[in-house]
Specification:
This protein has 501 residues and is of the alpha/beta class. 27% of the residues lie in helices and 26% in strands. The chain folds into two domains: 3-96 and 274-496, Aminopeptidase; 106-262, Glucose Oxidase, domain 1 (3-Layer(bba) Sandwich). The chain is built from twelve helices and 19 strands.
Amino acid sequence: MSRSSFLPPLRTLLVAFVSCCGTASAQYEGAVPPPEKFAVGFQSITEADSEELLKVIAGEEFAGRGTGQEGYLKATRFVAEQLEASGFQPGGPDGSWFQPLAFIRADVKTDKSGFQSDGDSLVNGDELGVSSYFGDFEGTLPLTFVKATSRPPQIEQGQMEGRILVIQSLSRIRPGNQFVEKSGADVVVVVTRASRVRTQTVFQQETTAGSTPMITMSPATANKLATACGLNESFFADTAPKKNLIVSSSAELSCQLSVSRESVDVPNVVGWYPGSDESLRHEHVCIGAHLDHLGVQQDKVYPGADDNGSGSTSILQIARAIHANPVKPKRSILLIAFCAEERGLLGSRFYAANPTHPISDMVCMLNIDMIGRNEEGPNETAEDNINTIHLVGSKRISMDLHDLTMEANKCVNFVFEYDQEGVYTRSDHANFARQGVPITFLFGGFTPRYHQPSDTLEGINFAKIANCARLNYLTLMMAAEHGHFEKNGEDELRKRSGDAQ
């Protein structure tokens, strides 16, 4: 079956709609039927399609969709095929589906990297992650182990010169870190959680490599170095340090590093569905989700079924629904599958700075990220969250958009939660909100599978994916009729109050 054949024929959708008498039978208890003019598209969104699409997006062929990896590029072509089959036009530059970003791809040459003790292999190259260094290093040096809180320990300038610094910090260690720079260490090993140890990764083209070799390691791997130097085998824990500690060892280990670099283009996928009203079609509603995940790292695949295969599935279902519905949106629809969200929202930041349609014409931006699992935490189980979803940021810029979302939700009947505003700056809508665009962000919440190889199809709530698609389909269609929203949200009112003072 060709990929484009995932799109059901319109006649099939009409029959399905008629057969269910216009009722929203797959929604949560208490939901009302959708407005008649949007009903065909609404009823075209099914749990079965959610499952079928997600099986592809989180499947073996796309290998976790790592930014700069072949699996991600394959996934972008799949998304473009789906959008074309759904009646969208290329929305990228020069009539393309793709808006490329220039990156540097860095690879740890695993056969030329590692740590040895007395000639015996201690840490293999595939246990080392890229940080901010390109090139080769070889040397035998003593080690200093550091645990640092948000206020790291005081040290003398150059105190660790001629040493390997192995540091675990409450704050993320980035190039130019003051403590690291002051240490003067010849090699820096940053101890971080396993999902951040990436043997292959990308940096933006303008990134300047650090002159000091810097790599990453998981706590379990770093403890191999600690043990070899006479420290406790659990010296580094999975949790961040609560106290500062410096331990220097006289034991020397041999270190070999080889990190290569090459230029690579990684695209956003951009689709455009022209509005039906010629006088309004220059204005548009944006719907987006990040397509990338962690890809293949240390020979492990991170499938990213929830993060964010679920959101990517949802926006493709919305695209189908728009095309299936006889009544088309008056204003245009801009659909973006973003790259490099996992690298710091880079794809959305690039689009917001280099839009293919003016940001001033963007009515609102609807973002979907991680909506495939029921939230689990210390005080709640997955069973507690079968019909819940976090509605993040909807009250900040425009209460009118929030109210419209609430109206659309009557046809789905999610129980909205508002206790995850801490993630407001952690997904792609943030780069549009910074420019004053009203946003909503649907977020399912965190689970133990977050950023783990276990984020597979197992345990996915396909009904939640479909219902997110139904909700944002209605929100999108209603927003395309409404047009620009008044900026009367909480942040906007606070801003005005501050200006007035």
